[in-house]
Design brief:
This protein is mainly beta. It folds into four domains: about 60 residues, OB fold (Dihydrolipoamide Acetyltransferase, E2P); about 60 residues, OB fold (Dihydrolipoamide Acetyltransferase, E2P), CATH 2.40.50.140; about 70 residues, Beta Barrel (OB fold (Dihydrolipoamide Acetyltransferase, E2P)), CATH 2.40.50; about 70 residues, Arc Repressor Mutant, subunit A. The chain has three helices and 18 strands. The strands form four sheets. A five-stranded antiparallel β-sheet has the order 3-2-1-4-5, with no helix packed on it. Helix 1 packs across helix 3. It is elongated.
Length: about 280
């Protein structure tokens, strides 16, 4: 059986000026074309060729020896090359771009941005991709607490946080309490594993451990004070949300950074503000 969206080894059943026709040995299905420009030299009837099967612009099955970026059932990061009234089209390494239907998008997608998607066959027997990949992520990684990771944002829920595909395949979450900057679906992130749950899912942070993060945080605070002409109108009673909005820091991280600057005698604290000395 010739299978759409997969690599297969098929036999040459006949040759034409514009290419060769391929089928399974003894196959009863209609043979499919491999265009002449992709046919290896000296290919003859009976030879076996490893090809990828997809559909051309006229919805006919066709073979290629080109390597697509994704195959049926796989996850891969693809770039949006255009948008239309039916969805977005993504570059998958072949001449005809692949469709990401509106109903399979997670929020609005942007031309030129890349997203993690899965290839599937729709009800019309066409190859398409979907951004709804959460259920396809694995929970059997070998990661341990404090390991570094890289991944991509696949979803965001305000009450929970940002859902991450670690290494584009493992299930991870950056909890809301760890999010001190805005993340968008498709963003690439890196950080550390804070916990491996019993079910294998990963809790993540894009911040380093406090003792390592303090230098960077103190620089953020110092520059913010400079932007306020040397006097920042913050105190110990400043609301955590204000600190997060202005500095991208938790209140605890802010207090550690201020403490470091105090110890270095770079600032002084008054009843109403923090000043550069």
């Amino acid at each position: 059986m010739i299978e759409l969206g997969k690599w297969q080894t098929l036999s040459v059943v006949r040759s034409k000026e514009f290419g060769v026709y391929l089928n399974e040995k003894g196959g009863a299905e209609e043979a499919i074309l491999l265009p002449r420009k992709q046919v290896p030299e000296d290919t003859k009837a009976g030879d076996e060729l490893r090809v990828f099967v997809y559909k051309d612009s006229e919805d006919r099955l066709i073979a290629t020896m080109m390597e697509p970026y994704i195959t049926l059932g796989e996850l891969a990061i693809l770039k949006v090359v255009s948008t239309s009234t039916i969805g977005a089209f993504m570059d998958w390494g072949l001449a005809k771009d692949i469709l990401l239907p509106f109903k399979e998008q997670m929020g609005k997608v942007e031309e030129g941005k890349s997203y993690l998607v899965k290839m599937y066959i729709d009800k019309s027997s066409r190859l398409c991709v979907t951004m709804k990949v959460y259920e396809d992520l694995l929970c059997d990684s070998t990661y341990a607490k404090d390991d570094n990771f890289t991944g991509v944002v696949i979803d965001y829920k305000e009450e929970l946080g940002a859902f991450i595909a670690v290494d584009n395949k493992y299930s991870g979450l950056i909890p809301q309490k760890e999010l001190f900057k805005k993340l968008f679906i498709g963003d690439k992130v890196e950080g550390r594993i804070t916990n491996v749950r019993e079910d294998g899912k990963l809790d993540l942070s894009i911040r380093r451990p406090a003792y390592m993060q303090m230098d960077e945080d103190s620089q953020i605070v110092y520059k913010k004070i400079e932007s306020y002409r040397g006097e920042l109108p913050f105190t110990d009673k400043t609301d955590p949300e204000t600190i997060k909005s202005e500095l991208g820091l938790s209140k605890a991280a802010f207090k550690r950074a201020v403490g470091k600057l105090l110890k270095e005698k770079k600032i002084e604290i008054t009843d109403k503000s923090i000043k550069i000395i």
